[in-house]
Amino acid sequence: GLGLICLWVMYMRIKEVMNKYKVTRKALLLYEERGLIQPDRELSGYRDYRLVDIEVLKKIILLRKMEFSLDEIENIIIYNNKELILNKKNEYEKEAHFIETKKLYLDYIHDVIIGEYEIDEAIDAIDDTLKLYDENKYDVKGRYGKRTGRSFRSR
């Protein structure tokens, strides 16, 4: 009776999952291939997504929104590597610091444009700062530090 109804409600088919969570079939199959979700297979071959699969899928969606790679997501979900979340926070802090630094340089550039500073001096100063960020030697407190993330300047 009621147990059977609850069991039925706990399963979702691939199309239902795709529509409800706005994910592609390709993404679901990739998550399955990577071992992140393991839907049951009916004799007919249809996939039945259980509540546990849906919960993992929601975590994947959340992590993807925060720009985690699939490898990082796998490490967080399968291997319980929560340190990657802190690493991402540190990466965002570094990016925010870099943006603040670039905003400060705009004031400097303004002063260069109106002739208060030498343009060659400005170019050298900006290049030196960008080089530190490119080499990942600039931490969020503005000191030299260990390599902590990816390069921020586009190439």
Compact description:
The protein is mostly helical. It has helices at 2-9, 14-21, 25-33, 51-65, 70-77, 83-113, 119-134, and strands spanning 12-13, 40-41, 47-49.
Can you tell me about this structure?
There is one protein chain. The protein has 155 residues and is mainly alpha-helical. The protein has 7 helices and 3 strands, in the order H-E-H-H-E-E-H-H-H-H. A hairpin with a 5-residue loop joins strand 2 (40-41) and strand 3 (47-49).
Any chance you could write out the topology, listing elements then pairs?
Layout lengths: L1 H8 L2 E2 H8 L3 H9 L6 E2 L5 E3 L1 H15 L4 H8 L5 H31 L5 H16 L21
Antiparallel strand pairs: 1-3, 2-3
- Strand residue content: under 5%
Unreliable parts: 1-8, 141-155
The beta-strand count equals 3
SS field, number of helical segments: 7
Calculate the mean pLDDT score and round it.
84
**Structural class label:** mainly alpha
Core attributes:
mainly alpha; elongated
